[in-house]
Amino acid sequence: MAEAEGDGLRRRGLRSLAPEVAIAALQRALDEDLTCLTVADVDWSVFAPAFTAARPRPLIAELPEVRQALNSTATQGDSGPGDNGTELAATLAALTPADRERHLNGLVCAEAARVLGHPDTTNVAASRAFRDMGFDSLTAVELRNAMTTVTGLTLPATLVFDHPTPAALTQHLLAALDGGHETSAVPVLTELDRLADLLSGAALEHSERASVTVRLRTLLAQWTSEETEEPGGIAEKLDSATSDEVFDFIDRELGLS
């Protein structure tokens, strides 16, 4: 157990102190009556990007080593593919659009499973949020590193947080490998993934859920309607409906009446 915990700390950039160094630090703290002190051997190039991947961390933000590590990470914005990416791009170019997406999504899921320590991709679904799979700041950065190696792209430490599902990440990588020309559907799908996360964790009253339901059904009706739809469609009717009419509409749509 202790060995496993030690490996976990090393993966996060926290190295074991040599006994003589640790004892000397403790002795100095006692001699100088230092009551609030932390002594650690930190690999900031590993620890800082992972620790700050989800949000800023004021506790360490002013340390010169942290600023240097984060500045180094920040310069790794999306750029054109390197050698690995060129090879992958050539492979993708020989495939149909559907097969390109399927192939790259398979790579994303395989690397996600490997980072999480799974023997296969059974527990890694394309539409499932990385957060729900068990990703944390460390594993998010590890997946970023893996996808950098696979694609040859330089990618930000926030990659998994910016594209929260394998499907969204796949679309982003496809666009980057294709020269940065994202399809118009990519941001829409990403926002839908975020909306799904928001809804899954929302604790709403009955009336609030009803309002959200009406809004979602209105958007869906607008999205699926024909361009020639007459004025006065479902959206307009719902906007002018009374509360009782809205609840009647929801009940009919849910098959409750």
From TrEMBL:
What InterPro entries has UniProt attached to this entry? ACP-like_sf (IPR036736), PKS_NRPS_Biosynth_Enz (IPR050091), PKS_PP-bd (IPR020806), PP-bd_ACP (IPR009081), Ppantetheine_attach_site (IPR006162)
Q: Which UniProt keywords apply?
A: Multifunctional enzyme, Phosphopantetheine, Phosphoprotein, Transferase
- Pfam families (alphabetical): PP-binding
Q: Where is the Carrier domain?
A: 102-177
The biological process GO terms on file are: antibiotic biosynthetic process; fatty acid biosynthetic process
| UniProt xrefs under SMART domains | PKS_PP, PKS_PP_betabranch
Tell me if Phosphoprotein is a UniProt keyword of this record.
Answer: yes
What domain of life? Bacteria
Query: Could you give a GO molecular-function term held by this entry?
Result: phosphopantetheine binding
Write down what this protein is called.
Carrier domain-containing protein
The organism that produces this protein has a lineage beginning with: Bacteria, Bacillati, Actinomycetota, Actinomycetes, Kitasatosporales
